[in-house]
């Protein structure tokens, strides 16, 4: 006699399938939530770490800005001191300038040239004198051009004259006194040349 299953097996199978589906769905949802939580925790840690780095960098920037301000203040003090030093050097140089000019004029005048008049107007010095020959005047011009203190010699006129024993030419010349800045620049260039540093 054949066995007939009268139990609702299809309904039981459907319920088992639904239960399995719900279980899988719950596992997926739980896994997704756990993964999202872990990712959120990870990125939150990264954000906190970056905020700590940013705060550190901001603190260092504040310190550097403060140091830069101090350096700028020191640079201003240095510039003020340099200006004062230059002013003192100019005043010191101008105090002895008259004596230096007389000494330098005496040095550039060669033998055979005699000065009868010397007049200073500002930076220009005008001299009147007599010379035994034009070669002597050329020597004087070269001496003025190579002087550390004098520059730009110009002969304004030469007039041949006669004296008892020998012929002397009357001449008139003017040249200029170099500025303190120009003398300092030439001195610096000389120091650089001696030390092997090319002048700029």
TrEMBL record:
**What residues form the membrane-spanning segments?**
21-43
For the keyword Transmembrane helix, the answer is yes
Q: Which biological process terms from the Gene Ontology are attached to this UniProt entry?
A: type IV pilus assembly; type IV pilus-dependent motility
Q: Which InterPro entries match?
A: Extracell_DNA_Util/SecSys_Comp, PilN
Recorded hits in Pfam families, A to Z, give: PilN
The domain of life is Bacteria
Instruction: Respond yes or no to whether keyword Coiled coil is given for this record.
Output: yes
Coiled coil location: 64-91
Which key words tag this protein in UniProt?
A: Coiled coil, Membrane, Transmembrane, Transmembrane helix
Q: What is this protein called?
A: Pilus biosynthesis protein PilN
Native organism is Pseudoalteromonas luteoviolacea DSM 6061
